[in-house]
Amino acid sequence: MYKALKIHGYCYVILTDPPEPPSHPPEVLDVTKSSINLSWSRPKDDGGSRVTEIKDVTAKLGEAAQLTCQIVGRPLPDIKWYRFGKELVQSRKYKMSSDGRNHTLTVITEEQEDEGVYTCIATNDVGEIETSGKLLLQATPQFHPGFPLKEKYYAGVGGTLRLHVVYIGRPVPAITWFYDKKPLRDSENVTIENTEHYTHLAIKNVQHKNHAGKYKVQLSNIFGTVDTVLNVEIQGIHFIFKSSMEWYFLIYIYWQRIKCYVFFL
Predict the structure, then answer these.
(1) Do domains 10-20+44-138 and 142-235 have the same CATH topology?
(2) What does the alpha-carbon distance between residue 92 and residue 89 come to, in Å, rounded to a whole number?
(3) Where would I find the H helices in 151-246?
(4) What is the mean pLDDT of residues 211-231?
(5) CB 129 within 8 A of CB 5
(6) Which SMART domains match (predicted)?
(7) What are the structural domain ranges in the chain?
(8) With contact defined as beta carbons under 8 Å apart, do 219 and 173 qualify?
(9) Which residues, including other chains, have CB under 8 Å from residue 46's CB and lie 6 or more apart?
C-alpha cells in the first residue's frame, strides 16, 4: 500500500493500490551463464507523481478569491476543504467545485479575518494527501477589532508611557505618530516599533507638562488612510508653589513693678 500524508503544495498525484503490474517482457536482451537481461514497458500508473508548492493567492477585500489544487487518484478521492482544522461546507460564503482533477474553493471575502491558510484534503481507500495555500487580502488599513483601544492611557511621572496599537490591512501601511500635531521620531527618549501587525510607541521619563494630552496614530496605504486619537494622563505628585505675605499687628500688655523712693530733707 502507498500512502501520501501532509504533502504541502500544488500537486498532481495518482494513487493506486496496488500499483498496476508492468507488462510482460517483450524480449530478452542478453543471456549469459549467470544472468539474463529483460526489457519491458513501465506501468501506465505507478501510484504517484511530482508535487509543486501552491502559490499564495492575493485578492482585494470584498471580492471573491479562488484557491485551486490538482489531485487525481484511483479510486476517485473524496475532496474536502478546511480552515483552522474545521471542515468548510458549501454556503453563500464558500463555494466548492471540481472537474475530477482540478478542485477549487471560492471564498467571498467580507472581512480581514478571511485571510489565512486554507487546506484541501483528498482521501480514498489508498490513503490521504493534503495541500495548503494562503489567502492574502488587500484593503484600507483598519484598527483590529479584536484589540480595542482604551478610552484613556496612564503613565507615572518619570516612568515610561507605552501605547500599543494592533491593525490589519495590506499592503503594509506607512505609520506615523503625532503629539501636539507634530510627528514623533525615534530619539533618546522616544522609541517607535512598527511591524506587519502592530505599532508600539514608548516614551521614557514622561512629565505632566510635556507628555500628557492627545496622541494620534495614522495608518496609510494605497487603498486609504485611517487615524485615531489616544488620550494620555500622566499620574503622580506635582508641586504648586505659592507665595504670600500677611501682616499682623500685635499689642503686648505687661505689668511692671513701681519703685518708690523717699528723700529726707
Answers:
(1) yes
(2) 10
(3) 208-211
(4) 97
(5) yes
(6) IG, IGc2
(7) 10-20+44-138, 142-235
(8) yes
(9) 14, 19, 20
Rounded CA-CA distance 184/201 in Å is 9
Q: How many residues does the chain have?
A: 265
Q: In whole angstroms, what is the distance from residue 132 CA to residue 182 CA?
A: 46
Distance (Å, rounded) from C-alpha 71 to C-alpha 33?
47
Residue 213 in grid coordinates = 494630552
Q: What is the CATH code of the structural domain delimited by 142-235?
A: 2.60.40.10
The single-letter DSSP state of residue 84 is T
Q: How many Cα atoms occupy the beta-carbon half-sphere of 40 within 13 Å? A: 10
3-state secondary structure of 215: strand
131: exposed, middle or buried (C-beta count within 10 Å: 0-12, 13-18, 19+)?
Answer: buried
Instruction: For residue range 146-189, list pLDDT tens digits in order.
Output: 999 999 999 999 999 999 999 998 899 999 999 999 999 999 99
**Quick check: helix, strand or coil at residue 200?**
strand
**Which three cell numbers mark 58?**
492575493
pLDDT of 97 > 60? The answer is: yes
